[in-house]
Amino acid sequence: MTQAPVSARDTSLPAGDDKHRAVEAMFDRIAPRYDRLNRIISLGQDRRWRRDTVAALRLAPGATVLDVGCGTGDLCDGVAAAGYSPVGVDFSAGMLAAAHTRAPLARADALTLPVPDASVAGVVTGFALRNFVDLDRFFRECARVLRPGGRLAALETGEPANPLLRAGHHLWFRRVVPLVGAALANDAEAYQYLPRSTAYLPPPGELLTLVEAAGFDAVHRRTFTAGAVQLITGTRR
User: Fold this and answer.
1) What is the total count of domains within the chain?
2) Residues 32 and 93 sit within 8 Å (Cβ to Cβ)
3) Does a structural domain hold residue 181?
4) Residue 31, phi then psi, degrees to nearest 5
5) Band of residue 184 on the pLDDT scale cut at 50, 70, 90
6) Which among 23, 100, 143, 226 counts the fewest CB atoms within 10 Å?
């Protein structure tokens, strides 16, 4: 598996199969406390971000929506609450074991989804893009499983454009979050890695280009919380 270049900001991050193994082991460890930490780290805003992600799908009631990197199932529950039929996949056995959703779940790699071609109406993913080994391949896999006209909605961290807000965001995400993770999850290593892993994400323009090249039209980027979070959407060509 190939890895998109890591930002020069942090070349110590793992790549390829090393990244796959490291990320899987990390999520297995933090799964039991993952939801609680999400609420704290996002200051409770993660629920709203997920609602906006699901709303961006704009699909017919009952449509099948695949949640890639579903974790414990928060986004699956949001999909179900909107009247769609969620199916979740994640490569972490620990996250799936801690899942609370009623949606059907499967353990699978996001780059080789166990889903037939053109078989789902929507694909969502929440804060998982930076954990995938190959973003180009992931978006192409999303295009493969989506029907023509199907919708992609990918929620991920971002970075405020305003210098003052960006400095505050960095202080919280890169300094405070690791301390909170160490204290409440007893896993300083994981919550140091998670902020650093944003270095895997390409700049917004390059990210949109990857989605378009994978087979999507009407590709759009929306931001929340002064730019600290971004939502990438597109329609299967």
Assistant:
1) 1
2) no
3) no
4) -50, -45
5) confident
6) 100
